[in-house]
Automatic annotation (TrEMBL):
UniProt xrefs under Pfam families: FtsX
Protein name: Putative ABC transport system permease protein
Keyword list, A-Z: Cell membrane, Membrane, Transmembrane, Transmembrane helix
Record's subcellular location: Cell membrane
ABC3 transporter permease C-terminal domain mapped to chain residues: 250-357, 637-742
Statement: the UniProt record of this protein carries the keyword Membrane: yes
Chief localization: membrane
Length: 762
């Protein structure tokens, strides 16, 4: 065995405390990321497979009255239809939609307990039960005994209405009962819903859905019509799953790069201490490549073992932990873990390559000095022959500390970068819950009206037959008339068309000229965008926004006339007549909703599509809080641990590098406390300055990341407004964490003996 190979175990053994800390940090990072990648791929595969496994519908439609035999027969010539009628019950603080047990279409996955067998039993959605603290054996509404937790394959995201901007697994849930119990439910509250499956494979979903719509319209009046590709309760989960992968991957590689530079600083210190040995080895014939391989070996061994252990933990414990994050947000069916080659590459191969490249470049540069320089212990590449001049009027101890900082500037730069990244994670973890709660408080005073009633508009109003369209409009207006205190408005949904952003619904409000609720200038050709639209996409007065029809190529270019202060949603406000005539082509008298500050009770429920109130507006924040609240606590702990580890490792290197100097000042009569004032205080000043400088920088670093996350991951907007108390918390957490490190380093200084000064005497 080569003499250099024999030194590797000894190097790891002598620096065991540093390598253990790095090992634990790498294992923690890789296991979390590996667990996430494995869970993400496994659950995405289970979601994609569920369409066949549970025979998920191709779409559904709703009617006011049940279909008769003739209607079913005529529609069934084109598709197979299934009865999915349901009853909704309002409970004390939520609403539940009750179905009859499914056996052929949109099948149910039993996750815990069992399906209802007896009269008065119910199996409810697992996530709804969790969010409302319901257990098996409890009674729902004092009527139905909960006997199981299930996942309905057509409700992976609990959208109460397909037009909602966000699902709500707290205030809305679904459940199934047996046929006998279902038949006893109040018939007057029955919602007649029918799912369909195409009889043959189709190529163009939209064309097939449009053709079927014409067929059904000839048979009956529709209350709702939702093809699968438009059904958010089915498609939202699939579009969201997998989108977090890029962000997690970026965090992993940033962490690996930071740890690689920590390794480089440690190796540079080792090379400095062993300069004579390296010079002798070079003089006796060892090549630079052999020495590079030797000094890379220990970090690579630690990294490789960390990757292997991290992946083992990722596939076992952390896979379940990461899967629970999805289960906290979505009503998913059960899944099986799959072997992920891409996860192995991303958490093992890529980190190893990054480590090898960074180490090789740094070591090649360091070891390319001449043999004579190593023997003389002169490892500086600069031609500067004198130390940096420090004015004599500066106190001696201050000058001494400044010399320590200058001598270890590389280590302190890595400390600053590490603190910057750790504080970025900490700010995100502290700020997001605060922003969510602040958004809920702001919306209490910023709502357009206490209630927005969105009406169900018959599709026949937009018929090409003008007479039929006019008759339908008059009939519709008569059915939805209410008291004069409620204000009419028009609401139309378009899609955003933004680069590098998720396509989202943009609600276009047509506002009456004498509106009491929305104050905009009705003169001019432009539109007003909400403050949320402005903050999310950066549009200002004079800019042009582009919106398009859902599932069509038709687009609208709208000039921004102003910004309306409304943080509730990404929406547009314009004159009602212009919206009706220029976009909808329905005539100036058309409307589709009411603003009201009190509940409207004289419109039949079947004519109301949805009601937008405070609970509806705050769905996005409530759901984020429920699904990410616990995760933010974990991120806080991770960021503080990373903060501590980086400072501990590099301050330890600095003290070890100056071990001989510390020994000398002890011989000269300085106490441990005085030595600590020189060396630990220098690091303390750098850490304190890094915390102070990094905190204001974090705002400007996090803001574009947050906006990009909201653009690519979510519909809607939460204002990026960070409370100043968050920055104070960050400073306190940073100081307290460093205090622990400083105590550990003080003990290190205490262990430096006076005999250290007798070593390496030249």
């Amino acid at each position: 065995m080569s003499p250099l190979m024999k030194r590797i175990p000894r190097e790891i053994r002598n620096g065991w405390s540093k390598y253990i800390v790095i090992f634990l940090l790498l294992v923690g990072t890789i296991s979390l990321c590996s667990g996430f990648f494995v869970a993400d791929e496994s659950m995405l595969k289970a979601y994609n497979d569920s369409f066949d496994k549970y025979n998920i519908e191709d779409g559904h439609f709703m009617t006011k009255n049940p279909l008769n035999v003739a209607q079913r027969k005529n529609i069934s010539k084109h598709v197979t239809i299934y009865d999915l009628s349901y009853v909704e019950r309002t409970l004390s603080s939520s609403k539940i939609r009750i179905f009859k047990q499914r056996h052929t279409i949109n099948k149910v996955d039993v996750l815990e307990g069992r399906l209802a067998r007896k009269e008065g039993e119910i199996a409810i959605d697992r996530l709804y039960a969790k969010n409302n603290h319901l257990s098996i054996g409890n009674y729902l509404d004092n009527k139905w005994k909960i006997v199981g937790f299930v996942a309905l394959s057509d409700y992976s995201a609990l959208f109460e209405n397909n037009s909602d901007s966000m699902f709500d697994a707290i205030k809305f849930g679904v459940g199934v009962v047996n046929e006998k119990t279902f038949n006893q439910l109040t018939r007057s509250q029955m919602k007649y819903c029918y799912a369909w499956k195409y009889n043959k494979k189709i190529k163009d979903e939209k064309k097939a859905a449009d053709d079927l719509l014409k067929v059904i319209n000839e048979e009956t009046s529709l209350d709702d019509y939702v093809p699968r590709y438009q059904n958010q309760a089915i498609t939202f989960t699939g579009s969201d799953m997998g989108s977090d992968r890029a962000m997690v991957m970026m965090l992993l590689y940033i962490m690996i790069i930071i740890m690689a530079f920590v390794f480089v600083v440690m190796i540079s210190d080792t090379i400095m201490n062993e300069a004579n040995v390296i010079g002798t080895l070079r003089a006796t014939g060892y090549t630079i490549k052999e020495l590079i391989f030797h000094y890379m070996s220990a970090p690579m061994i630690v990294t490789l073992i960390s990757c292997l252990v991290g992946n083992i933990l990722g596939y076992t414990y952390f896979k379940t932990l990461m899967a629970s994050l999805y289960y906290n947000s979505y009503s998913l069916t059960s899944y099986k873990t799959i072997w992920s080659i891409s996860a192995l590459v991303e958490t093992t191969v890529v980190p190893l390559i990054l480590m090898i490249v960074i180490h090789y470049v740094a070591l090649r540069r360091k070891l390319s000095l001449s043999v004579l320089k190593f023997i003389k212990r002169d490892l500086s590449k600069s031609k500067r022959k004198h130390a940096v001049y420090l004015p004599r009027h500066i106190p001696f101890f201050t000058r001494f500390r400044m010399r320590i900082i200058f001598q270890n500037i590389g280590s302190y730069i890595v400390i600053f970068v590490g603190i910057l990244f750790a504080n970025l994670l900490l700010l995100f973890a502290l700020a997001l819950p605060d922003m969510i709660h602040n958004y809920q408080d702001v919306m209490k005073s910023q709502m357009i009206a206490d209630y927005q009633y969105i009406l169900k508009v018959p599709s026949s109003i937009q018929s090409e037959d003008k007479l039929k369209s006019m008759i339908s409009l008059l009939s519709y207006q008569r059915e939805v008339e209410t008291d004069q205190e409620a204000e009419k408005f028009t609401l139309y949904s378009l899609k955003s068309k933004e680069k590098d952003a998720k396509e989202e619904d943009v609600m276009v409000y047509g506002i009456h000229k004498k509106s009491r609720y929305v104050n905009i200038d009705h003169h001019g050709d432009g539109v007003y965008i909400s403050s949320s639209y402005h903050e999310k996409y950066g549009y200002d007065k004079g800019d042009t926004i582009i919106l398009h029809e859902p599932y069509e190529k038709k687009t609208y270019k709208l000039k921004v006339q102003g910004i309306y202060n409304y943080p509730g949603s990404v929406c547009v406000f314009m004159d009602q007549e212009k919206l009706n005539e220029d976009i909808l082509k329905t005539g100036s008298q058309y409307f589709s909703g009411y603003f009201s500050d009190k509940p409207i009770t004289d419109i039949k429920k079947e004519n109301i599509a949805t009601i937008i109130d405070f609970d509806t507006i705050t769905k996005i924040s409530r759901q984020l809080d429920a699904s990410m609240g616990k995760m933010m606590s974990v991120v806080q702990v991770i960021s503080l641990v990373m903060f501590m580890v980086i400072i501990y490792l590099l301050s330890k290197v600095i003290i070890e590098k100056n071990g001989q100097s510390i020994s000398i000042i002890k011989i000269l009569g300085y106490s441990n406390r005085e030595a600590a004032k020189l060396y630990i205080l220098a690091t303390s000043l750098v850490v304190l300055l890094s915390i102070i400088v990094s905190i204001p920088l974090e705002y400007y670093l996090l803001k574009p990341v947050f906006i990009a996350m909201m653009k690519t991951e979510m519909s809607g907007w939460i204002p990026f407004d960070i409370n100043k108390i968050i920055y104070i918390k960050m400073f306190i957490y940073g100081v307290l964490t460093y205090t622990v490190v400083a105590i550990m380093e003080y003990r290190k200084i205490q262990r430096v003996s006076m005999s250290e000064a007798l070593k390496n005497v030249e």
